[in-house]
Amino acid sequence: MNILFRYGEFHNLTFALPVQSSAFSYPYLFSATKVDGFSENGNKTFNIMCHHMRFMFSEVQKVMPSDTFYFTVLRNPISLMESSFSYYKSMGAFAKATDLENFVNNTSIYYNAKMAGSHAKNFMTFDLGFDHNGPDSIKNAKVIQGTVDAIFDLVLITEYFDESLILLKEALCWSFDDILSFPLNRRSNTTMKTLTFQTQEKIKRWNSLDWQLYVHFNNSFWKRVDEFGRERMQREVRILQRKRTENEKMCLQGEVAPSQLEDKLMMPYQSGIAAILGYNLKPGLTAPYRLLCQRLVTPELQYNRLIHLRQIGNQT
Description:
By secondary structure, the protein is mostly helical. It contains 13 helices and four strands. The longest helix is centred in the C-terminal third of the chain and has 22 residues, at 230-251.
């Protein structure tokens, strides 16, 4: 989101923003009526839509231009569920479980299929707008995969984020500076849990639709890398990583725990039992570099407010 926020801000593009908060009525399916300034008969053009939503293609099409480039990102369901348990420990199906192992060993006790939202089962299938409690048959999984394939121009993979950014840069004709980013919303190592092989296998079975989705698009991702060229990919990843290192040296004192953050206005949203890290900038940065460095470390909620205020200002 930071990459898209920054690109849109620096190129004076118009975002499709939620009417309320920083999400489109999540966990309910996206509706065009939840976009600030949208009108069925209006002629307003939106360039970027990137806020949290439960995807519904027919409604997104009402808002975005016909030549919109659609992309999404998938993550290994094992690490996704370990992370989700940490972030959402205080709510829903996870609330009464002592730990993730306890949850996956007793899903029939803790999980209720009628609960709104799905941080606890087939999270990605849910976010893409499908029934996360649907049959985990190969046939159903193939229908989901085929639909995502037909709608999305590119599916990124979290575990290969730099390679994903290179493919995104290529597809959108962007520069290395456009895809530059620092890791945001990252947890302290103290809240990360190492899972046993048995627990990992149980997570895969519990999230069968997500697992089949991930395997399918991980395979198609590497086919796309092969088309791009493996050696070329390695070369461009090295360039991106070098640029990131240069900017880290220029911008950052370091990544710190919430209590050590010097600018409390840049505090990342804290959730569940996770301690979300932030960054302290180096002092004495000149104005243009300070703006870039500041934007690179601006958390999602704060950046959302900046974008919202900018668009209000452009309308007045």
